[in-house]
Amino acid sequence: MRFPFPPPIIMAPADSARGTPPTAIAEVVSFRIHQGIDDTEFISAARATEGLVRAQSGFLARYLIRADSGVWTDFVIWQSAACARAAATAVMQAAEFAPFMAAIDVSSIELSHQQVFWSMDG
After folding, report:
1. What is the pLDDT, as a whole number, of residue 10?
2. Nearest to 16 by CA among 117, 122, 115, 121
3. Which of 49, 61, 67, 86 is deepest in the core (most CB within 10 A)?
4. Which SUPFAM superfamilies has this protein been placed in (predicted)?
5. Terminal alpha carbon distance of the chain
């Protein structure tokens, strides 16, 4: 789909003043969970990682979403790419993250880091 206008390329000063730093990075991880694991069990495993993820330097927000196709996306906003990389290393080594990862079909993982140019909240 093409939009009739160009994508934003910089944040206006007012946007960065509202709380989203101009260096913010969206970590977008899409995946499937293993057959036999139901949504409730998976969401419980994700919730068990909350304290660990919140404790990471540069954490701003996290959303766990699922498409009708069954593909899940863990969408996390970090203050910077360096924060995202450091957090990924830390959480993958933490025991409390293991049940969450064990539920995921690792062969289905697609990961990207994307710069946040603009944000809006309610």
Report:
1. 40
2. 117
3. 49
4. Dimeric alpha+beta barrel
5. 26
